[in-house]
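W.,

You were right to be curious about this one. When I first looked at the sequence I had no strong expectations either way, so I just let the prediction run and decided to look at it fresh. Below is the sequence, 426 residues in total, followed by the output.
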Amino acid sequence: MAPSFRSNKRLGQEETALLLKSSRKCLANLLELSTREGSRYTWDLESDEASVSVYRVRRSKKLASKWSNMFTKAAPAPAEPIMYCAVTQVSGSLEEVVDLFHGNMNDSSEMKSLHKQLHPHLLDMQVLKTLEAPTEYNPMHSVQLLWQAYSMAPSALFRPRDFCLLQAQDEFVSSTGRRGWARSLQSFASPAYPSLEVPHGGYVRGSIYGSGHLFTESATPGCIDVVAVMCMDPKSNMPSWTQCMNIKRHVNNLHVLHDILHDRRMNAEGFLGDLDLVPKASVASCYVCRKAFHLLSRKIHCRKCGVVVCSKCTQERNATLDKQGHTKLDVCIVCCDTAKYRPSTSGASDRGSVQSGIKARFSNLRSPMQSPVGSSPSSTTMSSLSSQRSDNRFAKTPTRPSSARSQQATYFGMNPKHGTRVVLVH
């Protein structure tokens, strides 16, 4: 269970003001990762699996000396930081991403469930305090204090680590004019949230520096470029190879974001009830592949369009229903593909084409990290199955949210109380 921090001290006005000032600095430092030139980071490719490319920052004394200017005195930077970055691209919009994180910010159980999917080694977490909540004027901005605990691999040798984190979230506009949303994480130290090493489960208080997520509208319509950055200092005596393993696995699971957004999109559209389904007895063949059913065939209802399909043409998807709660429902592959890829004027892109565009931007592995936004990958059609079957029942893809905010260029920190506006420059 998450601990109850008991301390005679509380966050004062000066400490709160310092944290808010630090949150803006951490966001600006995270945004620097998306600049093409002048970056202080040089990245080397570590792995390229499951549509996620993982890079590691090249260690150097010059790099370590520059890090001292990025952090507050409460959480000094390590002498030789170990930093990993994961890059992928998902189908969706910035509004969907913001709703994914902001929609759960007041529900600890839902927030924990989301972070557990992104980081399976998460043990527990809770919101310590909300310093700035989203407003009608600035719905994409928030600043919170979080507590998180993670297991360390191998768990038989190392105790779990916990972190007190300053989380800042806000939107920005790149120099190319594309909208983005950043989520930065930075450790902080305060007497109000003391170490829980003894006797609360034996957590070792670690530190996280200059980490978070960058979501930027891609040149491919209906897609988002995602960059996840993690720099962790687990403290105590831990070999460098175990540190690298634990930091890398923190970003290696980024591909699940695609499935999370996909499932949320399908849930938003709703599912059919039993009375809306086509009777199985009246169907002799699979509606998708047209293969005839035989004695041993299993007839399955698609809960999105109501037709009867075979087991090869269906997938189990995560669903949240009013009465059943979290469950799994059968959905045909055509409805899955329709909800997975957003429509564009040039045709839908398959995931392989999407990844080729990202790899091209990171092809020069011996030079500073490139921007997650750039030239668009070539657009291809979806599978022949979904292109051939254009029945209106499958045309259930949600339209991209349209609002006055999405029509205008909004800069990071436009709220006057946030200070100077920050625009990315190349």
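Here's what jumped out at me. The chain is about 25% helix and 25% strand. And, maybe more interesting for your project: Residues 342-426 have pLDDT under 50 and may be disordered.

Coffee later to discuss?

I.
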